[in-house]
Amino acid sequence: MDDLNSFILIWAFIIGISQLMGFLIDLIAWAVRKKHPARIEKSENVSYPQYITVSVWHDSHRSHGYKEITYIRKEDNKYKRYIKRSVGGWIGIILLYLLILVIIFGLPVAGLIIAPNHPDINFLFGWSLMVFLMFLHSYLTGIDTIAMMELNKYLKAQEQ
After folding, report:
1. Cα distance between residue 37 and residue 57, in whole Å
2. Is the pTM of this model over 0.90?
3. Is 35 in contact with 56 (CB distance < 8 Å)?
4. What is the full DSSP assignment across 81-127?
5. What tens-digit pLDDT sequence spans the chain (160 residues)?
C-alpha cells in the first residue's frame, strides 16, 4: 500500500471513530430529552401567535436545564428565531465564526504556503476535515436545530 492510500485509510478510520463517538453521545442526549420533553409556550391564545417560545432540555458540563429559544412570526405565518444581542455579543459571534473559518481553511493553506514540500502536509488537510465535521455535527445536533424541529412539529400539528 502506498503512502497516499495508507494516509486516506488512517484518516477515514480516525474520522469514522470520531463520528461514531459523536453519534453515541447524541444517542445519550436523545434518551435524556425523551425524559425531559420540549415545551412550547405561546404569547397569545390564537393558532399563530406573535411569539412562540420553545424550551428544550440542554445538558452540558456547565449547566443542566431547559434552554428557551423564542421565535417571532413573519409573513405567511412563518417563524424566524428572535435574536436579541448587544453590539458586543454580535462582535463576539462574528469573531468566533472567523476563528472557526481560520482553523478549518486557514491552517492548511498556511501550511501549503510555508512548507509546500513537507512530506506530512496532508496531515493538516485531514485534521481540517475532521474539525469541520466536528463543527458541522455540533451545529446539526445543537439546541437551535432541535428547537426548530420541535417548532415545525408543533406547527404541522396546528394545521391538522
Report:
1. 7
2. no
3. no
4. E-----HHHHHHHHHHHHHHHIIIIIHHHHHHHH-TT-TTTHHHHHH
5. 577 778 788 888 888 888 888 888 888 888 888 888 989 998 888 878 899 999 998 877 777 888 899 999 988 878 999 888 899 999 999 999 999 999 888 888 888 888 888 877 777 888 888 888 888 888 888 889 999 999 999 888 888 8
